[in-house]
Structures are given as structure tokens and as C-alpha cells.
Amino acid sequence: MSKLITVSPSPHMYGGDNVKKLMYGVVLALLPAFLVSVYFFGIGALIVTAVSVVSCVGFEYLIQKHLMKTTPTITDGSAAVTGLLLAFNLPTNLPVWIILIGALVAIGVGKMSFGGLGNNPFNPALVGRIFLLISFPVQMTSFPKPIVSRTQYTDAVTGATPLEIIKEGISEGIPLSELMGQIPGYFDLFIGRMHGSMGEIGALALIIGGIYLLARKIITWHIPVSILSTIIVFTGILWAANPEANADPMFHILSGGIMLGAIYMATDYATSPMTPKGMWIYGIGIGVITVTIRVWGAYPEGVAFSILIMNAFVPIINKYIKPKRFGEEVKNG
Amino acid sequence: MLKTFPKGGIHPAEHKITAGKPTETLPVPKTAVIPLSQHLGAPSTPVVKKGDMVKAGQLIAKSSAFVSANIHSSVSGKVTKIDNVIDTSGYRQPAVIIEVEGDEWDEKIDPGKTLKKEITISGEEIRKRTEEAGIVGLGGATFPSHIKLSVPKGKKAEVLIINGAECEPYLTADHRLMLEKGDELMVGITLLMKALGVEKAMIGIENNKPDAVDHLTSLAVNYKGISVHALKVMYPQGAEKQLIKSLINREVPSGALPIEVGTVVHNVGTAVAVYEAVQKNKPLFERVVTVSGKSLKNPGNFLVRIGTPVSELIEAAGGMPEDTGKIINGGPMMGKALNTTEAPVAKGTSGILVFPASDSKREEVQKCIRCAKCVSICPMGLEPYLLNAASEREMWEIVETDRVLDCMECGSCSYICPSRLPLLDYIRLGKSTVSKIIRSRKQ
Ligand code: SF4
Ligand code: SF4
User: Ligand 2: distance of its center to the CA of B7 in Å?
Assistant: First the structure.
């Protein structure tokens, strides 16, 4: 026996998960959707992803090493996840220099200026995306055509997303039944054959990754389910009230960034609530704001904005929404 | 569906490597070191002095307060001194040290193995014998058992709950007891029922011991009012409040005792000890201890006299492995790391675990990533990340209002945290500081 024995307080056993494993679990969950993007957008998807991931990790390293003078923690995988999620939120024809700016804002402003992983109030990838959307509205809203632009990058043939077509059309008074003929069918939406940001298109692949996240207990069901159900209920009511002016719930959840947002962006640890009840409030808020922006707002899509808005409420939610304490309500039967 | 508690819980690897090992009787030690503080509450007052000859089962220290317990010699021999020794708590505490000569038992004890089923004494007498025999909660909490047998005025016990969950990884002492002393357990439960004046007793057993569930279920038909329930394997199933919730779906309010919801919980080991005390006149001076660990050659369950040094248990289990890095008294989740193997086995020693060095060191700590895992697994519905951060920053008001005193120190939060934060260390600090603040407020 070695002469020294450890004397430390209990517990003496630990679970198998650590930060690194959780982060690489998210990367794995995003893999199916990444493959779908590569299938539909080809070379552009590869370039955007590579640039975004490498630059996010690189910026984190440089900022930690030279500005914060701490030991870089890039191996924990969180910068890679931010890079991947940022890429998923960008069109695949976005020039490299714009991606670099997005990565710098995501990591530098969104994450490191608050002290790094765990301290940031806003989802870093979305901070990057919104900054680019406001700064480069043209480049950020031209989306390559799926399949035909596989071998093209910035010179890809572009077109409007289903959400843009519907929004535009409705505002011009064109009846919905007519507009639906101009967008891909629901099956195409489900598998991802549409114009859109790189990683938001493949609902099916995103759901598969989401099931993996749930099974691995990386996320819980509360946030995705609360967002999706709120959107279904809200758009369902609007649709029932006037089916010629409002798209049906199925269209809403299959188009745009809702799947990506509900499963991967809104569930970001540091920027979402800590209790199930808090998660419901947060999810309902995201759902309501998203639909409000889509239906009445200036932008065709509102997922990113609504997540950032609800991120701001998370500290208050955590302060006032407490878990159900054991022995609090005495319901004895 | 298996019964369980609804909120939180974890499922650590079970490592019940000694489950199939029948209990072996460990030889009587050469020297017995019997601590005077083996129970929750005040240390007992010695009634023997240096030079006295004692027999096994003879009273050597008596209960000194309302919450205290009698202590009996576990061996026969000569008292050589009463001195401070390091016990399983890690501190120096007074103990009676006895040089063993032979193995002579007090003549009142019936050492025979025949089952004595017939109950001839009253409930009050059962309570008194339990008190005289120095029985304390053998699950590890070591609360004097007789106190739990007197129901306070205005309260009523409706059901006795018997804890056979043994939810800590590695430990199998209760498991073996249920298999090997099933009838004694049943009679013990019947005695406890009589003392409490209840018609119903429920035994809760985690479903990783199906043989114990089957065995006791088949025995239960011969005893009135006792039922056996398989519980989901979920730590901390054997925590008193969680077990009550699982079995009778009642929540013991914050700060209250189980009797508040009409129940009393005793461990299976305690019930067997009550059987021996009442039916065989045998005070509590030996117990079953699981000695386990991945590197041990011969891990097993041993019937051990109280006061036997831990080193002799490890010897019996094949000797101290080369790679040992930590020795734990109790289970891996709530047990205490020992600082010496000379510490003696006490009434509350349910297991001695020998961990290799590779499993003994804590991993590097990272910042809280706010993953909410600690919140979702806390069985008491607390927010460990918050209690941790607030204790670290000495924000005691938050620590108090966010109910740190409800924490039962199950360790699930530290277990699950992916950042390896020592959550429970700070929560313990918060608990003791808040307790002090509350006490000073009352004065
Ligand atoms: S489990 Fe650890 S990292 Fe996660 S919220 Fe709790 S303290 Fe923070
Ligand atoms: S140790 Fe306390 S705070 Fe941590 S999980 Fe157990 S009861 Fe909750």
C-alpha cells in the first residue's frame, strides 16, 4: 500500500459525464444535419463550417491566452460547438471574411466578454448571427438553391426561403392557397430540400440528433417541447381563424430555424433556465415571440431574436421560479 | 411499475460484488477498542474502569442523555484503559480498550440459533429492551432506536416502514442479512410493530436484490401485517424521506420527522438486532460489515465484533492491495474516508471500502456551465449550483432561504456535476453556518 491515503469528504464516486463529453455529444448530435447540408449545399456547407469552427476555436484561444491571460480551455469543445452552431445559422454562400467577423463577435462579444463558458447571458452563436444579419442584411438573406449549387460557393444561384415567399405574398394580398404552390412540399421541407441557412433545413436530421441528445441526457425535453407546442397552438389558432392569410402549424415548424432553435440553440446551458417550470415559461416565451415576428414583424423569421430576448429573462426566471421542493406542499394520500 | 420517489435521483454503477458471498464470522480480535460515541447524540458514560474483567454482552457504558445509547462489551477480557483513540469519525474520542481473553458471553444471553417466534412481552417492555441493548439505527445514521419507538403525544403511527433498500453502491450487508436471517427479521419487525402499536409493516427493497424480495415475500405469509415491496433501483431510495414517499406516497414536511405523516422507519439490521435483544437477550455488540473494493482479493460480508480494528477486516478480505488510495467507512456516496486503519468498527459501520488510488483523487474542477443537472437530480428539490455559489460567496441569507437545511447530504449533486464542482463541500459549509446563525438568532 502506498503510504498516503486520500481523506476527502463524500461522495467518493462520480458520474461519467464531464464538460468535454457533453460538448462532443452535441457535436455528434449535429452530424446528421451537417450531412444533410453537405448533400444539399455541397462545397459551400463544408467551407462555411470549416471556417466558422476553426475561427471560433482560434479566437477563443487567442483571447484567453493574450487578452485574458488564462490557460486556454479550447479542448472542452464549447468553442467548437459555438462555431458549428454559428455555421448552421449562416447561408452557405457567405464570404469567408464575413464569417470571420461573425465568429469574432460570437466568441469575443457573446462569450468571452462575460467571462467565458457558463457566464454568458446570451447564446454566443446567435449574438454572432444577429450581428451579421444587421450588418450584412443582403449577404445574410440570400440563400443558395439546394442541390444545383453543390459545386458553387459565393457564386451560387440563390433564391428566397419558403418563409420569405409566404411573408412577401401575404403582404401583397395573394391568397395562401396560391402561395403554397410556389414553395416546396411538406416532404421536401421535412428532409431539407429548400433554400435556407446551412443547418436549419433538415428537420428530420435535426430531430434524430435531438433524440440522441435526450437519450444521452445532454438536454431535457422541456425546452424543445414547450417551444414547439406553443408554436403549434399559436399558429393553429391563427390558421383556424383565417386559413387564407395564415400558414398552418405544420408549415411553421418545418420551415425556418424552429427545429434548430428549439432543439439546439434554446437549450444552450448557460442561457436557459435551471428548472423545468422555468424552462416552460422560457419556451412559451420563445414560441410566442417567434410567431409574433413571423406573422406581424418586419422579418420573415424570428427564432433567433426570440431566443435572445428570452435569454435576457433567464436570470429573473432563475431567481423567482424555484424547483418543487420536497415536503413543501403536503399532499398526503 | 416499481415504486419509487418522483423527484430527482441518480443511478451510479452498483458494484455489488459481494452480493453472493455468505456472511463469514470474523475471529474475535486480540484487543477490542470500543468507542463511547457510536451513536448520534451524547457520548455514553463508562461504568467499568481499568483492570475490570468483562464478558461479551456486559454493559460497559451507559446512556448519558435523552439522545444517547448504552454500550456493551463485544468481547471477554480485561479493561486495560479508557483512552482517546482515533475512531471512524477521524477524530480522537474516548474508548474502552479491552485485552481479549477467551470468548465468554454474559450468561443471560441465549447463544443458540433456534428461532424464537413467540412474543411474550408487552410493547413497552420491547421498547425498554431495545434501549437496554443499546440498539441504534444500523443503516448508518445511528440514531438511538428506542427513541423512535416512543410515539410522541398527539401523534399516531399507522405503518412501520422497514428499510431494506441498501441503495449505496458496493454495500451488501443488509442484502445478506435479509437472505440469511429472514425469519429473525420477520420476528424483529413483529416486535417493532407491537412496540409501536401498528398493524402494518412494509419492507422496501431495491429491485437489484430480487432473491431477497422473493425470499422475504415467501416468509411474509407466515407473519401478520408484513408486506414486501420491490423498489426501483434509484439512489437515494433508502433515504428516509424518499423511502416513505416511494412506499406510502407521503411527503415528510421540511424539518419534520416521519411520525408527522404517521410512520416510523427502521433498517433491516436494526430489526434483526431488536429480535436478538428481545428474544435472545443479546445486546448489540456485533454486526455484519461488507468489506469490498475492486482490488481486494477476497471481498465479502463479515460478522464482526464492535471494536475490531478495520485493518483486521481488510486482512480477512485478502489484505491491503498495493494500489490502495482510499479507505471508506460506509458506502461510496455518503461514507467517510478513514485516516487510519486502526479505527475500530462501530455500530454504524455498514461497510469498509478499499478504493484504488486511481479512483481516489478528485478530478480537476471547471467552472459551473449551468447545465442544470444538479437541479434536476436533487431529490430534495434544491438548487445545488446556487447553494454552492452562495456559500462560496458567504451569502448566507440566500443559502438559508433556498433551504440548505433540507439537504440530506446524499452527494448526488457532486456525483452528477460535469464540471466536477465539489458542490456538497460548500453546501455542508452552508448548512453548518446557517445552523449557527439560526441558533444565535434564538438566543
Ligand atoms: S451540475 Fe455542476 S455545472 Fe451543472 S449546473 Fe450544477 S453546478 Fe453547474
Ligand atoms: S447532497 Fe443535498 S443538495 Fe446535493 S443532491 Fe443531495 S440533497 Fe440535494
Answer: 12
Verify whether the Cβ–Cβ distance A116 to B367 is below 8 Å.
yes
Residue numbers in chain B where pLDDT is lower than 50: none
CB pair distance less than 8 Å for B366 and A19: yes
Q: Most distant CA pair in chain A: distance in Å?
A: 84
Which pLDDT belongs to residue A48?
Answer: 96
Q: Round to whole Å and give the CA distance between A102 and B159.
A: 64
The residue of chain B with its CA nearest to that of A7 is B337
Residue B165 lies in a domain: yes
Domain boundaries, chain A: 19-139, 151-320
Ligand 1 atom having least distance to the Cα of B371:
4
B386 lines ligand 1 (CB under 6 A): no
Determine the straight-line distance between the first and last CA of chain B, rounded to whole angstroms.
50
- For residue B390, being part of any structural domain is answered with yes
pTM, to two decimals = 0.92
Same-domain pairing of B394 and B251: no
Distance B225 CA to ligand 1 centre (A): 45
Which atom of ligand 2 is nearest to B236's Cα?
Answer: 6
Same domain for B271 and B383, yes or no, is: no
HSE, side-chain direction, 13 A CA sphere, residue B199:
0
- Quick one: average pLDDT of A214-223? 96
Average the pLDDT over each of A128-142, A157-171, B251-265 and give the range with the smallest value: A157-171
Same domain, B275 and B386: no
pLDDT at A244 over 90: no
What pLDDT, on a 0 to 100 scale, did the predictor assign at position A332? 45
Count of structural domains within chain B? 2
Domain extent, residue B165, equals 123-280
B336 with A331: Cβ contact below 8 A:
no
For residue A174, CA distances in Å to A169, A253, A319 come to 5, 22, 47
Read off the C-alpha cell for A59.
479566437
State how far residue B53 is from chain A, nearest Cα, in angstroms.
Answer: 37
Whether A330 has a pLDDT exceeding 80, the answer reads: no
